[in-house]
Amino acid sequence: MSEIQERYVSANQAHLFASFEDLTDDERKCLLSQLKQIPDPSKYLQEVQDAIRYSTSVSKSRRFSPLPAQACASTLDTSSETLREWNDVGLDLIAKGKVGVILMAGGQGSRLGSAAPKGCYNVGLPSQKSLFQLQAERLKKLQQLANTKKVIPLYIMTSKPTRTATEDFFTKNNYFGLEPSQVIFFDQGTLPAVSLDGTKLLLESKSSLIESPDGNGGLYKAIYDNGLLQDFAERGIEHIHMYCVDNVLVKVGDPIFIGYASSKKYNIATKVVRKRSADESVGLIVMEEETKHPAVIEYSEVSQELREKRDPQGLLFFRAANIVNHYYNVAFLQEMIPKWISDRKFLPYHVARKKIACLDVGSGKIVEPSEPNGIKLEQFIFDVFSSVEMHKFGCLEVDRAEEFSPLKNAPGSANDGPETCKANLLSRSARWLTKAGAILLGSEIEVSPLTSYSGEGLEKYLGSTIGSPAVV
């Protein structure tokens, strides 16, 4: 018996090897390769059981309050002079090659009726551009605005199901005008599924475990495992902007955000938008009262009374909606990532009870359960906020209409679907062109990211009449 088998048998996982002697050499290698990914299965299963207990305990009744005022700023009421200063600081850091961008792109478009990665999806714009193309072109335009020959490295986190298709999509489209050397692909990890009580790993077949992506919190381990900390150092990157692929309005590498966070010397900063309404189902950026550290809480953790509570200005008391759009100081990542991935208090497992088709070892057949029979695990990217001192954490509120329109739901949905994404991007384009003095005939008029990053450079359209559909 190999050392790996001994380790798992000692952890009461002998069922994984019930058919081992019947497997081919390649099948044995496949199984052992998966098992190698968990150095200490006993520890892993104990952490899973801890997560199960936590999810059913009263520990979710923690007390929260809005972030302190000194940790917050808003582009909605910050002076134009300060915004220009932040923008200039950000562009200067970009020009010096000190900024990198991480794109979270591990998701598939299955909910949208597509077998391709979500970033390949086209929401129906006049240009017919995919999410990936829109974002790559924004990055290219940002490099032009920074007036630099240095490129902004784009690190794209994929998953096993999306990696090949994503790389092929970029290659086929000549990287959308970016240099191939500036685009770095890396995979997020996976976590094995377990039985409902957290004591047994589940098999997909006689030679493979059931695994699922480890959630957006897997970013930190993926950065570590793929040597990106070293790559940051070699490229001289000191500041990272991280965002999710499904936001059609995202300002990739936003110099205002970079300038805001870096000038205030924050270790981590986050963008938020105001909740649409008291009952919008979104996570909220808050302060945990006991520790005085930042945190994210789910919609369900806020009582109806608190959801509806207003401050003296008439705004919702809890309104800072999390949009998973973060700034990281690289020196802080270099120090903390090894701690985060080794200590479960920083990056705990979160459990999702699922109906999981799995191998019944006794019969050798796949069982299709009618009730939840197992647990899939994930980690949340914001759980590490608890390791940041409040004075080193910043929260920048931005205009939802300018910066946030996520593609979450199937075509025909009332919110956050392809139609709303298209409408919101075209509305933003119309605002920019109208402000520049253009006369618009129709609503299907799109400003290309190669023309303008955030509304600048449109003066040439003063007095011009633009018909629909059009891409300018």
UniProtKB/TrEMBL annotation:
EC numbers, comma separated: 2.7.7.23
Origin superkingdom: Eukaryota
Keywords: Nucleotidyltransferase, Transferase
Protein name: UDP-N-acetylglucosamine diphosphorylase
A Pfam match: UDPGP
Record bears the keyword Transmembrane: no
Transmembrane helix listed as a keyword: no
UniProt pathway: Nucleotide-sugar biosynthesis; UDP-N-acetyl-alpha-D-glucosamine biosynthesis; UDP-N-acetyl-alpha-D-glucosamine from N-acetyl-alpha-D-glucosamine 1-phosphate: step 1/1
PANTHER family listed in its UniProt record: LD24639P, UDP- GLUCOSE PYROPHOSPHORYLASE
GO MF term set: UDP-N-acetylglucosamine diphosphorylase activity
EC top class named in words: transferase
Lineage: Eukaryota, Fungi, Dikarya, Ascomycota, Saccharomycotina
InterPro entries: Nucleotide-diphossugar_trans, UDP-sugar_pyrophosphorylase, UDPGP_fam
Catalytic activity reported: N-acetyl-alpha-D-glucosamine 1-phosphate + UTP + H(+) = UDP-N-acetyl-alpha-D-glucosamine + diphosphate
GO biological process, one term: UDP-N-acetylglucosamine biosynthetic process
